[in-house]
Specification:
The complex is a heterodimer of chains A (301) and B (300).
Chain A: H1 8-14, E1 19-24, H2 29-40, E2 44-50, H3 52-62, E3 70-73, H4 77-89, E4 95-98, H5 103-111, E5 125-131, E6 139-142, H6 152-168, E7 175-179, H7 190-203, E8 211-216, H8 218-222, H9 224-229, E9 242-244, H10 248-261, E10 265-271, E11 277-278, H11 286-299
Parallel strand pairs in A: 1-2, 1-4, 2-3, 4-11, 6-9, 7-8, 7-9
Antiparallel strand pairs in A: 5-6, 5-10
Helix pairs in contact in A: 1-11, 2-11, 4-5
Chain B: H1 5-14, E1 19-24, H2 29-40, E2 44-50, H3 52-61, E3 70-73, H4 77-89, E4 95-98, H5 103-111, E5 125-131, E6 139-142, H6 152-168, E7 175-179, H7 190-203, E8 211-216, H8 218-222, H9 224-230, E9 242-244, H10 248-261, E10 265-271, E11 277-278, H11 286-298
Parallel strand pairs in B: 1-2, 1-4, 2-3, 4-11, 6-9, 7-8, 7-9
Antiparallel strand pairs in B: 5-6, 5-10
Classes of the chains: A alpha/beta (301), B alpha/beta (300).
Chain lengths: 301, 300
């Protein structure tokens, strides 16, 4: 059964082998609160790499039992990030989480050729799972945060990562919409042109495990009524599980509109590294961080 | 449904009409012979424009009575082309056909913006109906002769013209295969991007009345056994009516190979013009020339 609420990720995780989270300088209240809850829910164990004094102080302030963590004291932020990666490389952890450090430092550590987690030639992309109040299932969207203007090759990779994420949510045969402003085939608009190519590749089995259609407009992707009115025939339209956006602006505006105006909740993950990587923003809520931990744990090998 | 070129001729004869063919610079033995045969079989009338003395002489040499033609004496090559084009444009003739004049000069007359036969912004291309002994029906191929490297807009026009032609042959929903070397989509082939757009256009109803798939190789397009062996699901299913090629060189080599080694015959026509235009290569067989004339009648 595919799941329709983010909370249901916890149920799946309880049936699986527990994964170990490695926290890269996770010393702040939101991060520790989320990790603590994840541990309490029984979905992960955690090793925290960071300034032990700060971790202690935060735990006291937030009334978190510090004994539920394994802690490795490292006061230098960049070194903590690097050590977290090495920890994963040595097989001592299954997923990595960003704490109170700049995105650039975290990504730098992930991408480091010697000590990082990104295989040569691999491409990182960002996947977000959204729970939207008036939509009856989860929606997996990408890329809202990492790749500004994906080319065809990158869009194919993004599509594959969206499919992979859908599968982790127990969606057996996900329906993926390749988004554009309209459903027309044309080579005048790059988003439409690429979408047709990706759709054809899926038809030929070069992209596997999903029903793919595009170009599709947003309404045709998720609104059954629009599909009915237009009498539009598509295996995906009106019922998309995943949406691949043509560029970061459209994706980013979509997810922020959903979270800010419709009060949607989300889980996010970076795909393409040798393990799931959580890249939540420092301003993300504890709940978002908890969901992201659960998503990463679902995606971990 | 017409499955051979002889059936096509029968269909034209069955129309019980005499189509008027204007031949530009007509003093060419091959052309005169093909025209005479069509006249004798009763489905055309011909207006031969060119050097009247030469036309008469060439006809007599081929033992053809020149009185079966209407002859208009215009000695200059370009003037003869212009006269022929004008007659078709005015409706005095239904079909334009090239005689002894150079192809370049002839086509310049056809595409002339003020006095020609090509509507503004129309794509001119070439579609051939091939009869290949080993294939179970006619195969329409494009473009054998006009567009060296068609872009998407041109490919779209090629596809639409081929479909329209196939439908004249009674094929209600022609199967169009977009030809490449293999069926996998590769960004390294420029044509594959266009093919994906064409497939999507058909899916979205921007192209109508046909089934489109590609990239496909010739085997998957025309051989059911290959489809079964390769296990590639395609609605064309080895039963293509139309083959659209990525370049003129590919299409031209394909049809010439069929003519040379497979005993194929053809009927071909310029597409995009307001009236049918027959341009035949000198190396084509007498029979093919006769088929071209019949095809032009079918397409009027």
């Amino acid at each position: 059964m595919s799941i329709t609420k983010l909370d249901q990720m916890f149920d799946i995780l309880r049936t699986k082998k527990k994964k170990r989270l490695v926290g890269a300088y996770t010393v702040d209240g939101h991060s520790l609160g989320a990790i603590s809850k994840a541990i309490d829910l029984g979905i992960v164990d955690a090793t925290l790499i960071g300034n032990i004094d700060l971790i202690k102080a935060t735990c006291e302030e937030e009334k978190i039992d510090i004994n539920k963590f394994e802690i490795i004291d490292e006061k230098v932020v960049t070194v903590a990030a690097q050590k977290a990666c090495l920890y994963i490389r040595e097989g001592k952890g299954d997923l990595i989480m960003k704490g109170l450090l700049g995105t650039d430092i975290y990504m730098h550590a992930l991408l480091n050729k010697e000590s990082g987690l990104v295989p040569q030639g691999a491409m990182l992309s960002h996947v977000t799972v959204m729970e939207i109040p008036n939509f009856d299932k989860l929606l997996v969207v990408s890329d809202v945060a990492i790749i500004p203007l994906p080319d065809l090759k990158q869009k194919i990779e993004i599509t594959n990562n969206v499919i992979k994420t859908c599968k982790a949510l127990n969606i057996e045969l996900p329906k993926i919409a390749i988004l554009a402003s309209s459903e027309s085939a044309t080579d005048k608009i790059p988003a439409n042109a690429d979408a047709a190519i990706i759709t054809k590749m899926a038809e030929r089995g070069q992209i596997k495990g999903a029903l793919v259609d595009g170009p599709l407009s947003l309404d045709l992707s998720i609104d059954k009524e629009a599909v009915a009115i237009k009498n539009f025939k598509s295996p995906v339209a009106g019922d998309a599980d995943g949406i691949v956006f043509p560029n970061i602006e459209s994706g980013n505006v979509f997810y922020k509109t959903v979270t800010k105006l419709v009060k949607g909740e989300l889980a996010a993950n970076v795909c393409g590294a040798s393990c799931p990587a959580i890249l939540s923003s420092r301003s993300d809520s504890e709940q978002t961080k908890l969901y992201s931990i659960a998503l990463a744990a679902l995606l971990a090998k | 449904m017409i499955t051979t070129l002889d059936q096509m001729v029968e269909q034209v004869k069955g129309l019980n009409k005499k189509f008027k063919v204007a031949v530009a610079y007509a003093q060419d033995a091959n052309t005169i012979e093909a025209i005479a045969q069509a006249i004798n079989e009763g489905f055309i009338e011909a207006i031969m424009i060119g050097d009247a003395d030469k036309i008469t002489a060439v006809a007599q040499e081929a033992k053809i009575n020149p009185n079966i033609f209407q002859i208009i004496d215009v000695k200059d090559e370009v003037a003869a082309i212009q006269k022929a084009v004008e007659m078709v444009r005015n409706g005095e003739a239904d079909i334009l056909m090239k005689g002894l004049c150079g192809t370049d000069k002839f086509l310049r007359g056809v595409i002339d913006k003020e006095k020609g036969l090509l509507p503004p912004k129309a794509t001119m291309t070439y579609v051939c109906a091939l009869e290949i002994p080993k294939y179970h029906k006619l195969l329409f191929v494009t473009d054998t002769a006009v567009l060296p490297f068609p872009d998407l807009k041109q490919k779209t026009a090629m596809l639409n013209y081929s479909v329209a032609m196939a439908r004249r042959f009674g094929i209600e929903t022609p199967k169009v295969a977009l030809i490449s070397a293999a069926e996998k989509v590769s960004p390294h082939f420029e044509s594959h991007s266009d093919y994906a757009q064409l497939c999507m256009m058909a899916k979205r109803g921007q192209i109508k009345n046909c089934i489109v798939d590609g990239p496909l190789d010739i085997f998957l397009a025309c051989d059911k056994e290959s489809v079964a062996i390769k296990g590639v699901p395609t609605p064309i299913d080895g039963d293509a009516d139309v083959l659209l090629f990525p370049s003129l060189e590919a299409c031209n080599s394909f049809y010439k190979g069929q003519m040379l080694w497979a005993g194929a015959e053809l009927a071909g026509l310029i597409q995009g013009t307001i009236k049918p235009v027959v341009v035949m290569s000198r190396s084509e067989s007498h029979k093919s020339k006769y088929y071209c004339i019949a095809l032009s009648c079918l397409m009027v």
